[in-house]
Amino acid sequence: MVSGELMPRAVVIGASAGAIDALKQIIPQLPHDLSIPVIIVVHLAARKESLLPQIFRPLTPIGIREPNDKEPVGAGIWFAPPDYHLLVEKDHTFSLSLDTPVKFSRPSIDVLFSAAAEAYGDGLLAVLLTGANDDGADGLRDVRQRAGRVIVQDPATAEASEMPKAGLRVATPIFTGSTSMIGAFLATLLQRAASDSRETS
Amino acid sequence: MSSQDEIEIPHLLEAIYQEYHQDFRHYSMASLTRRVALARDQMGCQTTADLERLVSGNVDAFTRLFQFLTVQVSDMFRDPSFFRAFRQEIVPILSTYPSLKLWVAGCSTGEELYSYAIILREEGLLDRSILYATDISPEALRKAQAGVYSIDRVAAFSENHRLSGAKCSLSEYYTASHGLAVFDRSLRKNVVFSDHSLATDSVFAEMQVISCRNVLIYFDRTLQYHAVALMRDSLCRRGFLGLGTRESLAFTKSSSAFKEFSPAERWYQKW
């Protein structure tokens, strides 16, 4: 089934410098009856309570949370909590770690992408957006190795182009464009995922 | 993780357990896999099977691998509001006990141990307290016992200490010399340092408080259940258990033995 091949079981998104504006173009476009997890790492200074859920809750009715350790990965939007790496186990529960920062970052995009590639294989769609370092590129390589799919923001449209450029050097994306175009692409893809899962349930 | 690793990592962990009696078999696989990969790179091994061959019968190589597998991250008064809740909500209850036992399980290099010792001193309870500091890493325990930290870290420690509701400056408790902050040895007068594994060792003593922060995140749910049951059995009735900011008993089967005491700060009370 062709459409079945296109349905991701999970989406992971990574962004750094310029992340808030980029995500403001994407999150409001996600289907309100989102039926899969969308897991997001944003580089931010460490603090106990991140402001990300507060920033994005007014923009969508989709549930937005920061997971606790070993919480099941359900449908909805999840942000990595500040100062922890966020990983997904093969049984589709979240794990957190305080391991050393990767690419000077904790949470690191590489850490999430690589673990999610293991957990979801070809069911994963990884989206790399604006940022000023190359966190995420190693993760994209793992996603491709596990036959997952990749979307990279067009560096020319990014507030900081280093991260999407590094991503494009290691992985061929199924789609590239501005954040609003990526939002529209995801909206169409995930809308179909939502209606398909209703049909099969 | 390559598909090879799906077989080779469990095999390595079993071999380590058999030879060195260190049990990583029920660690969270996603983060452990990253640490094994890092060890493999740094120790010059192509595959996990090579790594297993290298550490077999080679204590020095195993000691190096062990450093990679154990995570040593700690700060003084990390998450100051957690320590403020301890000081303001739990210390008043503890002060009704004639003597106190507090266990820092997975104490790493000791930063949290000294945080508790300082609060107990400030609140006048340290002299009638015994603090147990345990970890599986002998090297971490040695550092905890020394109580010496880089002076670069002390500004952040001081700020956290202040935010935790401190009664004086952190500088009362250390002397600075040669870029190091050497913490007052009187803080550890009543501290027992000990090698203890939440995976393989048994109940410790009857405690009023157990602090086990950002340790359970490295365990899978089976080992979390085991560790929480062990801590439950090591606590007196109405004793307190403090976890990390993102750790919750909600996903373990032992949660019924506890009630939430200060939910936002992850303080639980045995019920």
DSSP strand content of chain B? 15-25%
Classify the beta-strand content of chain A into a percent band: 15-25%
Question: Average pLDDT value of chain A?
Answer: 92
The end-to-end distance of chain B, rounded to whole angstroms, is 42 Å
Q: Your description of this structure?
A:
The complex is a heterodimer of chains A (201) and B (271). Helix content of chain A is 35%, strand content 19%. Chain A has 201 residues and is an alpha/beta fold. In chain A, the strands form two sheets. In chain A, strands 3-4-2-1-7-8-9 form a seven-stranded parallel sheet, sandwiched between helices. Chain A has a two-stranded antiparallel ribbon with strand order 5-6. Chain A is globular and about 40 Å long. The mean pLDDT of chain A is 92. By secondary structure, chain B is of the alpha/beta class. Chain B has nine helices and ten strands. Chain B has helices at residues 3-20, 29-42, 48-55, 59-69, 80-94, 111-122, 138-146, 154-163, 221-234; strands at residues 100-105, 129-135, 148-150, 174-177, 180-183, 191-195, 207-211, 235-242, 258-262, 267-270. In chain B, the strands form two sheets. A seven-stranded mixed sheet of chain B has the order 6-2-1-7-8-10-9. Chain B has a three-stranded antiparallel sheet with strand order 3-5-4. In chain B, strand 4 and strand 5 (180-183) form a beta hairpin. In chain B, helix 1 packs parallel to helix 3 and helix 2 crosses helix 4 (59-69). The radius of gyration of chain B is 19 Å and the shape is globular.
